[in-house]
Known about the structure:
CATH class of the largest domain: Alpha Beta
Number of strands: 9
Radius of gyration: 31 Å
Shape: elongated
Order of helices and strands: EHEHEHEHHEHHHHEEEE
Strand content: 5-15%
Strand order of the largest sheet: 2-1-3-4-5
Helix content: 40-55%
CATH architecture of the largest domain: 3-Layer(aba) Sandwich
Amino acid sequence: MAKPRIFISSTYFDLKNVRADLERFVKSQGYDPILNERGHIPYGNKEKLEEYCYKEIQLSDILISIIGGRFGSQSKSDSHSISNTELRVAIELGKQVYIFIDKNVHSEFRTYERNKEHKEISYASVDDRRIFNFIEEIQSLPINNPIANFETSSDITEYLKEQWAGLFQRLLTEHSKQREITALDEIKSTSKTLNQLVNFLIEERKNGDQAFKEILLANHPAFSEIRSQLGITYRVFFCNKKELDELLKARSFISVPSEYWDEPEYCEWINSKTSPNQLLKISKSLFDDENKLKILTPDQWNESLVKIVDHIPPDEDDESDIPF
């Protein structure tokens, strides 16, 4: 199962204990932490080493940026540090970022804002004024700049717990709303069909009954029934039994030979990857002698024409049932 990849960005020597605590926290959540000192970043020999850090951010889902009092190693590309550039790359890529600033650094940043014109002032919390310049740059961003202060690593982990719980809750809410969106799509589809029928009846029948048949075929009640029974989120359409076979094969359903059908009037497909196996039954009456889908109006439809049941695989000694 794929896990979220969490890139931890900071200077190393002054924040190595915080990084270790965050690594344990991320693992405890069931996610994959990405830390340079653990060898998680594969380096090549064709580009600068720092470029491979930025490439790894592209493959990560979240970046945690921790800004302390050390500037760290300067990037070969500009005047920013490598850890600062990592954050800038993540923001440019639209990644979810969380920014944490040492409380003492952030407090002294207020003093810097009032005195940044005075270059001769030295600050106790940082070893390079460019750290304050970068904080200023972050705060000016219009989006994607949630900033929190920290004194200990537990301040960071508690903040992340709340944030990730909020993200999960939002995901669940959006998932529940998907049913409403699906229902609205079906209403829109029905409304469009009605409009097409009205327009067809008003206009002259230039194409005879064929146009009417095409409208009915495009909105065959079997499509919505199969979509509902199998939990398919996309549009279902087929014109004949062969196309139906291909559709069901993509959903892991295999055609059952006719000699093993439970009821001779129902074609069967089985999904042996589910437990218990799902057995889909579709009435043969939906198809003509050439296995083409018959056109039915909604008032001609019967839910018993398509049904799905649980199938318990037979014992090994029982040769009378489906051989799957």
